[in-house]
Amino acid sequence: MAGYIYSTVKPRNYFTPILVIVFSLLSLVAGFMISFGIMEVNLILIGLIFACAVLLMPLEPIYWGVAILCFLVVGQLEYFAGISRATWLPYLIGFGLYFRIPLEYLKSLRNHNAPPLKFPVLCVPLYLFLGSIVISTIANFTSAAQFLAGCRSYIACWSFLFLLLINYSKTISLLEELWKKIFIVAVIQLPLVLYQFFVIIPTRSTAGGRHGVAWDAVVGGFGGDPMGGGLSGAMAYFLVLTLAFFVLLWRKNQAHIGTVIMIAFLVMLTIILAEVKVVVVLVPVAMTLIYRRDFIRNPAIFILTLTLAFGFIVIILVAYQISYSHGAMSFDLMEMFDSAFGYSLDASLFNRETGQLSRAAALVFWWDNNGLDDLIHFLFGYGPGASNKSSVAEGVLTQKYGWTINTTTASQILWDLGAFGLLSYVGIILLGAWRAFQLVKTVANNSFSNIVLDSSGVGLVIMLIMIPYGCELLNSSALQFLLTSMLAYVGVFDMIKQKDKKVSILL
User: Which of 305, 457, 478, 507 has the fewest beta carbons under 10 Å from its own?
Assistant: First the structure.
């Protein structure tokens, strides 16, 4: 922070020696604490060093550094090195960036080429969501430790969005470069999944290991426990988003059909090996959104898309039967569908081995225990982190019930922040998607910006499907990074459009 202020404000001559003394003392303290050899302390120090660094560095290297951490580093440290607390690193940087927001805003006031603009309308539900966190914390007298654990999921990464909106003159080119590199992360998933499929799975019991079935160990590079499963849903979402992006590139004549086929083969093979059933919904929805305009112009395209979507669903279900069925295989479509999704839709299912409610059962259990007669908890929940158990704190609800009640993002937000919090969260994503599809019409049809806006709209809509599916949106820094990046890209175009409209009215 001191170095950042030094670069923007003319300091007095004694400012530099003071900085040298302060950082020298901090270095001595850090060295003393590291000498104890406690991993938790070391990780906290590393996170704090990163947090201090982000106050001094330009925005671009910070953004790329966080991207590399989220997509390539954190998951491997957690899965292969067993360092679960490494997942805190991106969040600690996110917390640190909040201290930079006022400094960036003050800097923008002096920038005549890119003065501050009014934040886009998609920030309105975000303000409501953050407000629900404040209300829930106060109403439930949430402890500091539980609040910190909750802030990891609910607050930390929104600083990325605010900084990108303030630095809107850099955001478009920065995020477009990210989209151009997206295939690298997708390609890396296949060798990781092959290793997990052929090396890790045989060491697991098909009956479940410690938690879940053996193929839960296949999570790609998005992190988890080899013996207990992980963020395979986050990997599947990322792969589907990558596929949608390349299909849009091909439609705009910016990618060869051979490249798209290669990406599609890679994505499908990785997903089949990982056995992530949510793709049965994600891929057809993504393709429908990509061809949404053609349905009106040419009904034959609509029929063809539906046929291909149905065929894709059947192929995936058959592939899962062949890959993971132990014993007699059934290729009856309804039986395959029930085998794939029946446990998720069973509103009375409780897995005694893992201590988890099914996805539907978690929502029913919340409703049964939070009726309209308990309005405060119904609307604002039991406080951030209440339903979560982390290394920082055990939530009050996990202590009360003793089993996992936050099976999905939807159920976790309902327990922690109530119906108001969930509706606000859904509103952020839904409004962002709607603005993306509106803004696509205002950008040149074959431009790269048009493709990124369209991809962001598709990505945000299929992200809504992830809310009732699992907790990846709250537990994966990679998905939170993607969410804020897509919203920032849409938001910057929205801000610029509103500015141009205001100027035209004045003229």
Answer: 507
Looking at residue 325, its pLDDT comes to 57
pLDDT in tens, 280-289: 889 889 988 9
Closest Cα to residue 186, out of 245, 252, 253? 245
As a whole number of angstroms, the distance between CA 72 and CA 283 comes to 24
Give, in order, the Cα–Cα distances in Å from 400 to each of 108, 163, 414: 48, 39, 16
Q: How many residues does the chain have?
A: 507
- pLDDT tens readout for residues 245-292: 999 999 888 989 999 999 989 998 898 888 787 888 898 899 889 988
CA 388 to CA 379: how far, in whole Å? 18
The three-state DSSP-derived secondary structure of 393-448 is CECHHHHHHCCECCCCHHHHHHHHHHHHHHHHHHHHHHHHHHHHHHHHCCCCCCCH
Q: What are phi and psi of 229, to 5 degrees?
A: 85, 180
pLDDT at position 32: 63
How remote is the C-alpha of 24 from its chain's centroid?
Answer: 37
Q: Which two tokens stand for residue 336?
A: 């395959």
The predicted pLDDT at position 129 comes to: 97
Which pTM was predicted? 0.85
The b-or-e profile of 250-271 (16+ CB within 10 A means b, else e) is bbbeebeeeebeebeebbbebb
Angle at 236 between CA 381 and CA 395, to 5 degrees: 25
DSSP assignment, residue 119? P
Give the ranges where 327-381 is alpha helix by DSSP (H).
333-345, 359-369, 375-380
pLDDT given at position 11: 41
**230, containing H or E segment:** strand 229-230
Which residues lie closer than 8 Å to 464 by C-beta, 6 or more apart?
426, 429, 430, 433
- Cβ pair 461, 426 in contact under 8 A: no
Paired strand residues for 404: 356
- Describe the crossing of helices 359-369 and 409-440 by its angle, rounded to 10 degrees: 110
Which residue(s) pair with 225 in the sheet?
A: 229
CB 63 within 8 A of CB 174: yes
DSSP H or E segment with residue 55: none
